[in-house]
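Title: Prediction job returns without error message
Component: structure pipeline
Severity: low
Priority: P3
Assignee: unassigned

Description:
Job completed but the reporter wants confirmation the result is attached to the right record. Sequence as submitted:
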Amino acid sequence: MTGDTKTTSDIIFRLENVLEDQSSVKPISPLMAMRTFAWRSVLKIKHVPEQLIDAVLFPVLFTLMFTFVFGGAIAGSPENYLQFTLPGILAQTVVFLTIYTAINVNTDISKGALDRFRTMPVWRPAHPVGALLADWLRYGIAAALCLVVGIIIGYRAEGGVAGVITAMGLLLVFSFALSWMWLVVGLKVRTATAVQGISFVILFPLTFVSSVYAPPETMPEWLQAFVNINPRTFLADAVRGLMSGTVDGTSVVMVLVVSAIITVVFAPIALWVYNNLD
């Protein structure tokens, strides 16, 4: 009995020490939590590398297809058309990848992972924000590959390295903002397939009815009215100007303004929906 009593007293003493030590343990900061969830998303790509198929194949296919199939008809030669269209294809490729954060978060919801994340003593928005930050890796891979393929087949960035880097930065800013809008969709619809379907219905018209593939002045006047206010036109013109060395200040400013508006409107909605999911 004496030994049992002593053992029990030791256990109680140790538990008291543990509880006292816990008071000095610092909670995980929001930055650390976001970094952890971002790394989780990167690891998912590592363990399922086929997720990068779209980021790898789409830039190559779009660049080659539009340059050599439509280049001669639109600009007289593939080389001339490549100088015009590559920045637009670069912007298109990255923008189409912005839906994947929403798809991944929707998958986490359907598999029950979200319920476990929300019980953790961390900053709640760390999960979606971390996922958004991790997708910059996907955007960077797609953009770099698209640019490399373009250079191989004859594209020359007259704006130099500084122009290319600035254009990439602008693409990342716009893509991060647009991802918030798709995140709202991903949190509200039932399946990842639905997220993809809804986003494509919106992105395809906005992409093709813009200055990505053809100058607006070649289009009917009634269509030009929409093309000239399409955010995709601002993005394509801004990236094209930065990479070619003929910076279009108005387009750059409009991209930043549109990005800020999308973020201010949809980020609070996405976080509110995320925090109030049943």
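Comment from assignee: result matches the submitted record. The chain has a mean pLDDT of 83.
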